[in-house]
Amino acid sequence: MEWIANFDMPPQPPCSLALGGFDGLHRGHMAVIQAALEGPDQPAVFTFSAPPSGEAMVLTAADKKELLAAAGVEWVYSAEFSALKTMDAASFVETLLFEKINARRLCCGEDFRFGRGAMGDVELLRELCQKHGMGLTVLPPVNEDGEKISSSRIRRAVEGGDIPTANRLLGRPFGFQLEVIHGNHIGTGLGTPTINQALPENFVRPRFGVYAAWCLVEGSPYFGVCNIGVKPTVGSDRVLAETWMPAFSGDLYGRMVRLLLVEFIRPERKFESLDQLKEEIRQNARQAEEITRRQDIGTFGLSAAGG
């Protein structure tokens, strides 16, 4: 898959182009992308490197690339919203999409907006496509529980700790693949050695607390009990995902591990002693094992490569 961020480029091959911010690659987004995959031209995506709304991402940039490649997308044109926000709607379509990117067919949702001040809508897009003899496929919204699936719904679910709902809306487990960093090593002293992963600044913040999770290490799944937050008992100066995998033994520092959240167990809280914390971690691990036993790792869709 080719990832293009600089539009000062040579002539491009004709493509069928999916349009959208695609900040979650949820089921609604994937329906638009699937439409672009159908047809004789190369499937491509036009997207933004960060949500134009400024809201937090619900997937990392690396996972976005992996999901698009796994879907069969051959070309991704990724733009900074700030670089295009003053371009008028007609120029955005005619100059950028048709001339530079060489789109022969456009695919979008019915609420797609574009151009300076978001003045362009699907009706204008249809007019421009007809004028230039280009195809246009407009997809209806994908609904769940009678409401449109959106990244905003997924953010609210994640922030509220409702991971099963977030996973249904996404069509895959919510999670991330991040580098394992050094922590304060208190878990090792408690007999519950953990891996620490720092959540990126622009990434959605799950409800602080303890979760049942799967960890994917070099293709192998391990159940885990994960605390997301600032570790009030021992303290942390940033938001961390700290995960104990009882069945895993080994050094993962500097490695990439994928963490997939399954279910919220309890809120984050401060304990009076490390002994109390140790006992609670072990109890939560028993709960996590029971929860993850009910979740088939084979339904998880994303790569288990784990870096």
Radius of gyration: 22 Å
Structural class: alpha/beta
Element-level helix/strand string: EEHEHEHHEHEEEHHEHEEEEEH
The main β sheet shows up as:
6 strands, parallel
Lateral strand order in the biggest sheet: 1-4-3-2-5-6
* Assembly state (oligomeric): single chain
Distance between the termini: 18 Å
The number of distinct helices, counting runs of at least 4 residues, comes to 9
The backbone outline, from C-alpha atoms, is elongated
Number of strands: 14
Taken as a percent bin, the fraction of beta residues is 25-35%
Poorly predicted parts: 301-307
Q: What is the average of the pLDDT values?
A: 89
- What percent of residues adopt helix (DSSP H or I)? 25-40%
Short description:
The chain has 307 residues and is α/β, with parallel strands linked by helices. Helices cover 29% and strands 27% of the residues.
Polypeptide structure, described:
The protein has 307 residues and is α/β, with parallel strands linked by helices. It contains nine helices and 14 strands. The protein has helices at residues 27-37, 61-71, 81-84, 89-100, 122-132, 151-159, 163-170, 186-189, 274-293, and strands at residues 2-4, 15-19, 42-48, 75-79, 103-109, 135-139, 143-144, 147-148, 175-179, 194-198, 209-217, 220-229, 240-244, 256-267. The strands form three sheets. Strands 1-4-3-2-5-6 form a six-stranded parallel sheet, with helices on both faces. Strands 9-14-11-12-13-10 form a six-stranded antiparallel sheet. Strands 7-8 form a two-stranded antiparallel ribbon. The chain is elongated, with a radius of gyration of 22 Å.
